[in-house]
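Ex. 9. Protein: NADP-dependent glyceraldehyde-3-phosphate dehydrogenase.
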Amino acid sequence: MWPKKVAIDFQIPLGVILAISPFNYPVNLAVSKIAPALIAGNSIVLKPPTQFDRRPENEAGLKLLRRALLAAHVILPDSRGYSS
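Predicted structure tokens for NADP-dependent glyceraldehyde-3-phosphate dehydrogenase:
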């Protein structure tokens, strides 16, 4: 489109990102917050909602999210204060 133009992209981590997930779409909205932060190389603390809807699809999605994020060094505190 623009001949002889060069784009340079620097991925500079900003630090630790806190992502507080809302109760209505906890997995979907959490992923939309943490994906760009992980791509940039940041560390993340993700707090799931306290009034979490215990439907099976939400539980399964949160378990998959936990498993995927453990490899990326993401802290996921639960309601008892423990992290995984």
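Check your answer against this statement. Residues 26 and 48 are 7 Å apart (CA to CA).
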